[in-house]
Amino acid sequence: MGRIIGALAALVLIIALIAAGWYYRPWSPYSPARITALDDPEEFAQTFQRMDEILPSRRIEAVDPQPLPEELAPLDATYSFNGETRTIDDFMSSARTLGIVALRDGVVVGERYGQGADAQTRFTSWSVAKSFVATLIAMAMEEGLIDSLDDNAAKYAPVFEGTAYGETSLRHLLMMSGGVEFVEEYSEDSESDIRPFFFNAFILGRDVDVMAGEIVRDRPAGRDLHYVSPNTHVLSAVVRNVFDDTLAGIVEDRVWTPLGMTSDATWLTNVDNERAIEVGYCCLQATTRDFARFGQFYLQDGVWNNERLVPEGWVERATRPNAPFQEPGPEARYAPRGYGLHFWIPPDAEREFFMAGVYGQYVWVDRDRGVVVAMNAGDPDWGEREEEAFALMRAIVQSVAPPDESEGEPDAEPIGAADGDQAGPEPESSIDSNPAASEPREPPQ
Questions:
Q1: Residue 396: which of 105, 113, 106, 102 has the closest Cα?
Q2: How far does CA 430 lie from the centroid of its chain?
Q3: What angle do CA 292, 295, 299 make, to 5 degrees?
Q4: For residue range 58-75, what is the model confidence (pLDDT) as tens digits?
Q5: Which alpha helices (DSSP H) does 69-218 contain, by range?
Q6: With bands split at pLDDT 50, 70 and 90, how would you rate the model's confidence at 430?
Q7: E strand or H helix at 79
Q8: Half-sphere exposure of 197 (CA within 13 A, CB side)
């Protein structure tokens, strides 16, 4: 009996040592033990400044940095919310804001930082990265690598052949109308599929393409707005295949270098070895200034340094509803926000749109006033504070836009824009290979 007890004790000890080794991974700079910081909302403001120290990533180099011109002035916007007059300092304190940058006509006119961050700090994007992936889809169309948004994903990413995603069109994935069974909630007590998906990718190091291919269909695609992050990962797999490169490498070649981003960035991967795949629905780390520059690229209709990088009409199509179920308003699925092709539309939008990530990441674009506002935060209560964030960003726009710009004509040519490519009325879309598909379509019945 004593021998049996001793053997069992030794077995338990061995299992405990193996589990401890797996959890702490002393042979690796990345371990589940370090990732526990992501479960502590009180640490978000610090954790989001060092995500690429906690999780593996690929670097995106700023190969040819071109700093934006500056006309800096104090950023001291005030706004009204819930019957109170509040200041930008009030918001930054309550929302644990890490960085805010405002551009007017491509010029940095104001910036603020908090929580120990500065202009060189890289912040995580969360779902702001989705808009980058959508842009790469558009760039692939501009380069002739994708024939039509109505093509199914498996045509360009054969790994999804025979899966629900494989038979879903790129258009429906961009519309967040993929028709798959997936629950995406971010409250701590919610039953959500996104948390185990994240765990399997970053803790267990599973192949993210395979994981996405395991998701099943529960409704026809194109029928409703259902925000599902793996939709974007599938699009990122399409991007990787058509450009034949890593996602980080494509972002470096097609976005960071042409736009003259001034700081290196990173994109998180599931593992730290040759099998690494970027988790495409989130996880781009960049400075707030570089996030703002990406917004400026959209303000300029996808033109930079006299070169069109996305199809004519893409920006207009991507930043407005493509079906009735995407319209903003009190009855919207994600009220009051509406949706386009991986871009959000605020309520009462007047040629405004924004990119968004959980916990307070935004890139806000006001095309009439020629202003971009980028903001990063580590706000556990971001969901309850979103409409206040809209009020603040609109107040910042008003504070930096000269009064005579309220009707929409910028006072200077946007930086890097082609002749005649200032923010103004968009041409008819030319992004669809099939002319019959060039107008927004009703969802199938």
A1: 102
A2: 25
A3: 135
A4: 999 999 999 999 999 999
A5: 88-94, 128-142, 170-174, 194-202, 208-213
A6: low
A7: strand 78-81
A8: 26
First to last CA, the chain: 70
| pLDDT digit string, tens, across residues 228-274 | 999 999 999 999 999 999 999 999 999 999 999 999 999 999 999 99
Mean pLDDT along residues 380-406:
91
Query: Which tokens hold the place of 57?
Result: 């990533």
What six digits make up the tokens of 323? Answer: 């079906």
pLDDT of the residue at 318: 99
Residues with Cβ < 8 Å from 129, sequence gap 6 or more?
A: 232, 267, 280, 281, 282, 283, 284, 357
- Residue 53 is predicted with a pLDDT of 95
27: Cβ contacts below 8 Å, ≥ 6 apart: none
Q: Which residues contact 16 (CB under 8 A, 6 or more apart)?
A: none
Name 104's bridge partners. 107, 371
- How far apart, in Å, are the Cα atoms of 283 and each of 34, 64, 215, 290, 431? 17, 23, 21, 15, 28
| Bond into 336 cis (ω within 30) | yes
Does residue 60 sit in helix, strand or coil? strand
**H-run or E-run covering 179:** none
Structure confidence at residue 3 (pLDDT): 73
Beta-bridge partners for 70: 108
Which pair of structure tokens corresponds to residue 145?
Answer: 């690598």
Laid out side by side, the sheet with 265-268 consists of 57-60, 265-268, 284-286, 123-124
Which pLDDT tens digit goes with each residue over 121-145? 999 999 999 999 999 999 999 999 9
